[in-house]
Here is the input.
Amino acid sequence: MNPIPVVLDCDPGVDDAIAFLLAKQLPQLNVLAITSVAGNVSLERTNYNALGLLEFLDWDIPVYRGAAGPVFRKRVEAAEVHGSNGMAGYDLLHTRSEVEGVNAWDAIHQYALEQQGALEIIAIGPLTNLALAFLKYPDLPQLIKRIVIMGGSSDAGNATPAAEFNIYADPEAADIVFCSGVPVHMCGLDMTMKALMTPDELDQVAALGSKQAVFFRDVVQDIVRFMRRLGITGINMHDPAAVLYAADDSIFTAYPAGIRVETKGTITQGKTVTDLFSDAKWQKNGFVAMDIDRDAFVEKVFELMSKY
Amino acid sequence: MPKKIIIDTDPGIDDAMAILAALHSPELEVLGLTTVFGNTTVDPCSLNALRLVELEGNDHVPVAQGCAQPLVHDLNSFSAGVHGKDGFGNTNLPLPHGKLDPRHAAQFIIDTVMANPHEVILAPIGPLTNIAMAYRLEPRIASLVKEVVLMGGCAFALGNISAMAEANIYHDPHAAEVVFAAPWKVVMVGLDVTTKIVMRPEYFAKLYAAGNPAVGLLEKIQPCYQDFHEEIYGMKGAIHTHDPAVIAYLLAPELFRCEEMPVYVVTEGLCLGKTIADKHHHVFSSMQQGKGIGEESDETALERPSTTITLGVDEDGVLELLFDLLTKS
Here is the structure.
């Protein structure tokens, strides 16, 4: 089978970095390009980190500059989690400093045209770039096969009691994407909170010995400490789980659902409203991943990381 | 000493089961039933409450009628498809003989709590309109009520009447917000546990075989409820056990696993009627400083008392307990 042509839309970000490490080694994916967006940290930082990660991985694909902030609102970020530079203080080597001269939304449209309906998007940051692409190009929904996002939660949030960070960071954009007509597969906290790697498992990855494997463990250590404050031992692999889902969903459980985003609520803005089985019976516009075979996930991570 | 309870109710098929179970328990003294709109309009709910106390000679238990509509919203969607227009599966049973207590439900609650300080447990199993009204009319009841054990909400489970909301809270979200913010002990028995307690056709068959008036009534009214669960969830004659779970909690709280956290009720938008349980309040309040809505909600969070939320349940234990109560002659 031919690998799936994808654009990886991201805001690196520590767990985005891990997602890069895995995406490069997944035979099911052909990552054509990276599009960056403001999210975990500012756009300048996410661009810089994306370029640095590609160079670190010796991965020659283009980076397109995306949106510097949400469609309507003030930017929020998660530097408390990812470090002020978004990479837990790591400054990756940069000899290549320039991104492409085309904007992310234009690039997405161009790739979609070239792939003639086969393109999939993996979006692991706020959904601003995709929303802008849909607003600018009305033909785009017909050209994209599937969107896999890391974002949302059918129950509780992490940015607020109700909302998950990526959706909370740009709720209007997220609602545009869910309503775009392209099936959206939501890899949210319901599933990613179960995609946990323990400190021991991180050490085992590092013991594989490559510089990428050591980086894998070291870059997440601040988050491991942050998670301990929440009473969780280890790190939730939010973005990497979404990338694995896009490549092969066989270790995941997902259900068809009607999905919208609350954009106005006083305490609920940014919450994904997922109708899985209520009396309301919303029209299905996507899938919500609810579960993951954690042990199979960790095994997959080892398998991919041992390729370095 | 039996526990003194007032059941605030919108009977309702599962309300009937809860009330009959409570009336059968020597460990509970039902001081009264107060009625509210919800499963249907308040008048048929009151008739049903009277029918229930008369069924087995409990006519001395007063029934006081309460609110016919939510505090703020218009009457939205009744669960008429679930319980029938008469609240009892459209069985149109003969009228009861008894009369309603002349007082409004809210007044009945206030009078009863004031007369039995620190003894009364409020057990609301419908929309929380009467409870919020009683608290607003006489705030002192907050410190004089022993606890409020309610059926409603969903902390981490999804909704039933809408994607995010449980029906009792959805029917009057503002009243629910008053109840969760008030300074009293609230136990929330919501969809997190009630959808995990499943009564199956075999269970009903054994139950009905007991042949007492209580199960006789349930056998008449239950099919409508089973049909609804089949239509929406494909449960093939099985049902979720909502309101009776409150009675099980009152008698055997050890069958439930609980956590304490503040609860907020959403009164607008797509999440109308959702109960938000603020699990990580302390951690996220520091993360959100100066960042918009997180900051605002945290200020009120400091003031808000924690609710005891039932999150786990011993299904077999609850089913057995209810079976034993309902089959008592």
Notes: The CA atoms of residues 181 and 304 of chain B lie 6 Å apart. Chain B touches chain A through 35 residues (CB under 8 Å).
